[in-house]
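User: I'll paste a sequence; please echo it back and then give the predicted structure.

Assistant: Echoing your sequence first, then the prediction.
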Amino acid sequence: MFKRRYYYLVAGFADLVFDSGKGYPDLAEFRKELKNNLHPSDYYLVSLLFLPHDNDNLIAFLEEKTDRWDPLGNFPLSMFEEERKVLQSIVARKDVIPQYMVTVIAQRTGEEQSVDRVATWKKLTEGYIEMALKPRNKFLKKWICFDRDVRNIFTMMNAKELNLDASRYIIGKDHFAQELTAIFNSGKDFVIPQEPDYAPAIFRIASENEFLERERKIDLERWNFIDSNTFFEYFTIDLILGYLLKYMIVLRWKQLDPETGRAMLDKLIGQMETQVMSLGFNE
């Protein structure tokens, strides 16, 4: 499969975006940089990674709490309002947002009861995952499945701890999701699955009690997964998607722990610089 090469964009990441002397550029600024430099079909893959922000915004829209709007979403408030008008129109009109969001709005339009946040969140998350798995991009598919599985493991373990119904929270109907539901129903004693191959490590991390250490380890697992699946990618959209995901991790740690965030950012920059120099692009 042909992949475009973004030599100058990737080579400029460390200097143009991650200049430590200027502080941390926010995610919106980095995203704008990507939009200005990527082919539309590649930028579409980037936009898919921001759909969870749109899902949160849609719940806020349905609850009429738009004061907490997340600017990182793909769609402005006006597009959700427009879609509601489309659904209420007697004249056939084209939908302006993804179909899974249209379905949720259609189900909630006209209902008087309050929004079931868990059920709505689950439908939106499953819709996002299904949409993100459609493009023919192997890295994106691997990442979406990995991240879904990680979150489902944590969901199942937390549900056991809090005596909640895990089936309400576990995402998807894939084989591993069904296996996790069965483990939840089996009681306290269970055998940790050996497949997928990252499952045992995630279960061990999810069993830890100290929050910050647990979060650090799970983000390192995410970091290493990205590294292992982009190792042979040079200047491609796969590398850029991985870089974006890592940067999201860095920003999260900047909020949780500035020193850790700085260390992870320095590691990210160092890795990118090493890749660029190894190909002789600094000549």
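The two ends are 29 Å apart (CA to CA). Residues 7-278 form one domain.
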